[in-house]
Amino acid sequence: MNLLDRILYRWLFRSLANQLLITYLLVITIALAAVSFWALVAIRKESLTDLQNTLEVEAVNLGLEIDNDLELDSPKARKRIQSAVDRRATRLGVAIVVVDKDGRLLADSSEPGPVENLSKEQEINEALAGVISKTTRSDPDSLKNWMYVACPVRSSGTTTGVIRVGVPLTEIERRLKKDLFVFLEIILATGVVTVLISLWLARRVNRPVREMSALAKQISISGDFSAFLPVRRRDEIGELCLSFNQMIGRLREQERVRQEFISNASHELKTPTMAIGSVVEALQAGAAEDPKLRVQFLGSLERLVDRQTNLIQDLLDISKLDSGSETNWQSEVNISQVISDAVDQVRPQAEKKELAISTQITLESGGQDLVLVGNANQLQRALLNILTNAVKYTPANGFININVRSMGGERLEIRIQDSGGGIDPADLPRIFERFYRADKARTRESGNPGGTGLGLAIVREIVARHHGTVEVESVVGKGSTFVILLPLRPDNA
Ligand SMILES: Nc1ncnc2c1ncn2[C@@H]1O[C@H](COP(=O)(O)OP(=O)(O)O)[C@@H](O)[C@H]1O
Ligand SMILES: [Mg+2]
User: Fold this and answer.
1) The domain containing residue 385 runs over which residues?
2) Are the beta carbons of 452 and 432 closer than 8 angstroms?
3) By the 8 A CB rule, do 172 and 47 touch?
4) How far is the CA of 424 from the centre of ligand 1 (A)?
5) Separation of first and last alpha carbons in the chain
6) Among 277, 296, 325, which residue terminates a domain?
7) Residue 118: which of 101, 140, 142, 141 has the closest Cα?
8) Same domain for 312 and 334?
9) CATH code: domain of residue 233
10) Pair (336, 308) in one structural domain
11) pLDDT per residue over 18-62, tens digit each?
């Protein structure tokens, strides 16, 4: 590839606008050229027919003027013929030739040459045979194209001679050439206009595209989402800029959530770690010597470590859900089994508080186990989180009621009702947020400082993975009911 080729190649294939420009130019030029060619051919044909008709009329008129003299065939008659021919020829600017019935030259408007036989010319031959004949040919002397119309002159049924009127086609050709130039000018002007419009369009399109790609590059290099694109237009490009900005906004929000999560998580991890540190310090300072204090301190150490372990487990779970590394969401899950396993896990604590746990499963299709497509471990985890809360926030001698029913064979409703203290309406909309714990005082009062505020956030995440919803109804002092709705098959979601 030489330099020119390379420049052309770059110019063409590095720019969408240039490719469009070339395409437009080609299409417009080809179309205009075809139209011009067709027009020129039509104009030429029309002009030739017009000219032929005029020449024919002149030949017939001259015939009417000289037919008597042709028949006479005397020197005087010949003279009259010659002068009639000359008159008409000068008036019209044409060349006229008259021959007798044997094809011999009688009169010639150009020069009165020697008598010669013109019957070898095809058009004269045909006219001698009695038909009007037209022909166009190039004259070897003048190198011009000529049109000839030869008309027979008849009198009492026989052909007495032939009049041939000829005219050079220079005039028509000059006009055609002029038309051709006009067409070429139109093609050129259209081309220039096309280029100008294309350049203008290209600038309009290129500018936002360049801005967009520059911003995308900047974001990918620096990870900085602070800048938005200017949206100046309402067309497709403007819409693209809007979507791009929405994407940046979304990324910005995600980044903010991520930062907040990290800062919350670090904070939550720091508190018990520092507490563990002080307990250990106290033990080292002498508390270990006192058997009573030692038991008490070791007990709180155990609780703190438990809390830390729970928190780390929750953090791991939620980050696993966030990262999408859990991929098994399509297994068959026996919901009755999942529920009874979850209940078994909270039963010891529930028994400690003498809480009654009851489970009702209402099946539509008589007796069969409810089977759902999803992830059994994750669903069990979600139920366990809700049940743990129910046990935790319900005072002694209360009850927990689990009610499962299938709805229309498509969805499953799991209601978990407790007779606990309920949730303040102000907290209700927020309890599914990460790290959100309602009413710290009451939490402490329930004797359970071990909460992380992540339990319900994990529930919401898991339910969403199953294309389901989770909601809560609660009355302070009466209790809360968590309602999970799950499609039996994700494609029914
Ligand atoms: N069954 C319930 N009864 C009363 N309050 C509840 C119940 N379940 C959840 N909550 C409230 O919702 C908050 C968030 O719950 P969760 O995300 O599990 O965090 P945690 O249990 O670690 O505090 C809890 O702090 C509690 O105030
Ligand atoms: Mg909880």
Assistant:
1) 327-492
2) no
3) yes
4) 11
5) 58
6) 325
7) 101
8) no
9) 1.10.287.130
10) no
11) 888 888 889 999 999 999 999 999 999 999 999 999 999 999 999
